[in-house]
Amino acid sequence: MNNALTHRDGMVLLVALVLMLTSHITCFAASSFTGFGCLPTQSNSFVEAVSANGLVVVGTCHIPGKEAFRWTADGGMVSLGYLPGSRSSEAKAVSSDGSVIVGESNKGDCAQAYRWTAAGGMVRLGSLPGEGRASVANGVSSDGKIVVGWSAMQAFRWTAESGMVGLGKLPGTERSLASSLSNDGSVVVGISGVCFGQGKGEQAFRWTAAGGMIGFGPFTVGLQCIGKAVSGDGSVIAGFTTTGLGPQAYRWTAAGGIVRLGSFSTAEAISKDGSLVLGSMIRPQLLPTPGVQERAFVWDEIKGMRNLQSVLTDEYRLDLTGWSLTAAKGVSADGKVIVGNGERNGHHEAWIAHLDRPLNAPFVKK
Fold it and tell me: Mean pLDDT, to the nearest integer, of 78-88?
């Protein structure tokens, strides 16, 4: 009897040990890094966003033209095509479950905002009355029913019921555009300014139905304050400001205002809970060739701004040989899927990283 019990106990211990080791190996193997390549007729790929569930990635392949794509692990990269009469397209944002994609499709120099679904394909959203017929969709709500962007020099918010509705402009500005929106579409962020990109003053805004468009950050000649992304509940905004010393990524809250995250950086995305900010660090490069060197970053309140490539190689043990990660563009709701852009073999290439724990989780040495 004692021998039988000893044998059984030994087997139990052996099974437990195997399970423990298997669990460790599984955890170690759970992190992965994948480059997307590109569509057959194109040579460079750029990602713009990932769905909240981490299953669908959208972006654009470039050169010789521009072609919007949708990527999944099972189906790979699939072209979204173009609006009728158009010759190029770009994908800008995706709904939480990946079923709705928005962006622009261009005919000549005229951009046209679209909303894509598998059932209906690309559907043009139209444009606001006013100067020109151009329009671009930059963001979509969690359920895919609300779209924001710009048209006729003005930010818009679109629904199937109301169509395209202008959100106005900040006082003293000539045009506005919406960059992103909260999960339910009740909060919209973007910029309003004078002659975008010409250093004449651009200010970030936060819009709600109750309060309208309210600006924040500096608004003076030669300064920019760009609102790029917003948390799920609309309480945290990420973007960047520019001065003569270069761009600085920031994180904004009503209580704390603008908090700058680091010099020579631009914020491109924010996590659903607002705890993570992602983007690109920009460093002037003198040798061997003058220019600008870009590196993807991730920021959180505890660890600050970190080089994302170093985080992925040192903490997640991912092999990024041959890669230079230039920008982080999106993160899933659970913080375990991150997408961005990089350079490999002389080409620009989009990528996705699946992680065994969120980016701001405590580092456990393996």
Answer: 94
